[in-house]
Amino acid sequence: MIVREAKPEDALRLSELYNQLVSNPAVEVEPEQIQALYDDTRSKLFVCDYQGNVVGSALVSLCSDVMFRNQPFAVVENVIVDVATRGLGVGTALFEAIEIFCVSTNCSKIMLLSSSQRLDSHTFFERQGFKGAVKRGFVKYRSAFSSAG
Prior knowledge:
Layout: E1 2-5, H1 11-21, H2 31-39, E2 43-50, E3 53-63, E4 73-81, H3 90-104, E5 110-112, H4 119-127
């Protein structure tokens, strides 16, 4: 099992994985965007390669903050492990890579959101050290923006 940064040639497989995560025909992974993330020192799109196949992914991005001088915080998004490989340690390996990145960049914390119906995911995140009862997350999608257009 190898965790590495995603490459543009992973686009099709990432699209397949994201379709396990959400049922949305608008999901489209562009190789150029994967390359842009690869080139961005403040974001990492990690994938887990298991027996030659990409079986998991997670995106982590640093957010600038002023509260603790120049110490950023991180946001994790789009965490997915292929249903066929759950329970093999793929998710744990991804979060280990995320934590190494966050320690190396002096992050104050790592935040993530998860769909309220994904109870198995919540249990997994808590096993990774995340506290679901400490704060409450809120989301406002583009379709609800007052200037949506």
